[in-house]
Amino acid sequence: MLISPFEMKRRQIFARMEQINHGVDRTTDLMSTFQSRDVAAVLAVRSINPAQFFRLNCVLQQATNFSLALWELKKAYLQEIQKLKDVDNREILHNESSFSDADARV
User: Which domain of life, per UniProt (predicted)?
Assistant: First the structure.
């Protein structure tokens, strides 16, 4: 069975989107563990000494890292969606030019 180049490109894009989804799942799993283990411990502190302040700073930095990771994954996913739209548009243009070529021959 022959597959059009457009369909081949779509499959590649969907595979990359699936990898991004797995990245989101892994990141959210890590965030959940981080929240239950580290954030809960920091929030339980009532008076901050220098060591606890250092730990709070580390927890805030890690939370920022998770936020950045999710933002990068979102950006990559949106780029793949744009690529998918571009493939669809190229296929439409290709099909329209094929129809106009067929009409010209008739």
Answer: Eukaryota
